[in-house]
Specification:
Layout lengths: L2 H9 L9 H51 L3 E6 L4 E7 L18 E8 L5 E5 L7 E2 L8 E6 L5 E6 L5 E4 L1
Antiparallel strand pairs: 1-2, 1-5, 2-3, 4-6, 6-7, 7-8
């Protein structure tokens, strides 16, 4: 390099290091779009979990109804909205006399057969069963009512049992 080229390069201002305002705005816009997509995807995942658990609960209720008919004894499901869980109980010896109904008597007691906790984002809002305990008779007769499930900031699902014993899921 000659002396004149050296002199010209020393006279220039150094290039600015960092991002321009346009580059910063574009980067923030891309980040905002990615965050929006991530949060909408999370809502979709939570809605799928809600729908899946509603199907699991409806299946569990139908299974308990079938077991009551097959085994000719009383069963019940105990919903606990505070603890976000439910338990399945069977009435053991002494309570299967159909004339007395499904009440423990003569040494009978409710014995737990299954305990389940709701998956994380799903909330057990309420149930309309007396004392949150639908009882299934030895003939498979269910108490009518519903269980309301919901995810935060999302829809709810209602698992309903009709007076005829039909179990349905409604949005």
């Amino acid at each position: 390099m000659g002396p004149s080229a050296l002199k010209r390069s020393q006279g220039r201002a150094p290039a600015a290091a960092g991002l321009t305002l346009v580059e910063t705005v574009v980067a923030l816009a891309i980040l905002a779009i990615l965050l929006a997509l991530a949060f909408s995807g999370l809502g979709l995942v939570n809605n799928r979990r809600l729908a899946s658990f509603a199907r699991v609960l409806a299946s569990e209720i139908r299974d308990v109804e079938q077991r009551a008919r097959t085994e000719r004894r009383c069963w019940r499901i105990v919903f606990d909205p505070v603890e976000e869980r439910y338990e399945v109980h069977a009435l053991e010896t002494g309570g299967t006399d159909t004339r007395a109904g499904c009440q423990p008597g003569r040494g009978g007691r409710w014995q737990s057969h299954k305990s389940a906790v709701l998956p994380r984002p799903v909330d057990l809002v309420r149930s309309t069963f007396p004392s949150d305990r639908p009882v299934i008779s030895p003939f498979g007769n269910l108490a009518a009512g519903e269980v309301v499930l919901r995810v935060p900031n999302g829809p709810q699902r209602v698992v309903a049992i009709t007076a005829l014993g039909r179990v349905t899921i409604a949005p």
